[in-house]
Design brief:
Oligomer: single chain
Number of helices: 9
Order of helices and strands: EHHHHHHEHEHEHEE
Distance between the termini: 14 Å
Strand order of the largest sheet: 3-2-1-4-5-6
CATH class of the largest domain: Alpha Beta
CATH architecture of the largest domain: 3-Layer(aba) Sandwich
Structural class: alpha/beta
Number of strands: 6
């Protein structure tokens, strides 16, 4: 496995789990949830992703805000939590989701190299705008792209094609970064050069194709760029 990626013109980041910490949303309500915040965070995230895949396969698209709310409703019911005020609090907290600590410095380091930077996410435009503004990274990005432009969630190839079309680059000139193994592997199958930001020490996926490299967090990104 090469330790550098050649001829990269654009770095594209997944949003949730890669730039932004989904667990921070439930963690922000620890005063109400107590120790159950971790169970809620895990179940909510799992169900959120499951609903994107199920909607994509069935052809029943809804934007990520609705999917996130539906997943939260399932998770609260599963944990036997009936609290409308808490539900609203958690949904609003998703709009103020925390960025991982290394994100601003990583984007600045790429800018210093003259590298273009973008987000490509399942998130709805309004959700992404809120997250980017809350993190204060809007001036560090050249584009924020949402699946709503094509009406289907990742890992549909048309989502990954948004980046190549928007920037006029070939897939192999894109370095794609995601903390979600299924996303990293699927982006590689599309033709991107891919670094899997394996924050959670997940086992390798058993799907085509293997990412070019694996990093523990985004601070290691620049070491891979020639």
């Amino acid at each position: 496995m090469s330790q550098t990626l050649e001829d990269i013109r654009l770095c594209v980041f997944d949003a949730y789990g890669t730039l932004f910490d989904p667990a921070s949303v439930a963690r922000s309500a620890r005063d109400a949830l107590g120790e159950r915040w971790q169970a809620l965070a895990s179940l909510w995230r799992d169900k959120q992703l499951q609903y994107t895949w199920l909607r994509g396969l069935a052809g029943h698209h809804a934007d990520f805000w609705q999917v996130t709310g539906d997943a939260l409703d399932f998770s609260l019911a599963q944990l036997d939590i009936d609290d409308d005020a808490l539900r609203e609090r958690l949904m609003q907290a998703y709009l103020a989701i925390d960025a991982y600590p290394e994100v601003p410095d990583t984007l600045d380091a790429l800018a210093a190299r003259g590298m273009r930077r973008a987000i490509l996410s399942n998130g709805s435009p309004a959700m992404l705008d809120a997250a980017v503004a809350n993190a204060g990274i809007g001036d560090r990005l050249d584009a924020v792209m949402s699946v709503e432009a094509v009406g289907v969630f990742k890992p549909h190839p048309s989502v990954y094609a948004l980046a190549t079309t928007h920037f006029g680059v070939a897939p192999q000139q894109v370095c794609f970064l995601s903390s979600n193994g299924w996303d990293a592997y699927s982006a590689k199958a599309f033709g991107f050069r891919v670094l899997w930001c394996n924050r959670f020490r997940q086992a390798p996926e058993r799907i085509p194709h293997t990412p070019d490299g694996e990093i523990a967090d985004l601070s290691a990104l620049t070491q891979w760029l020639a």
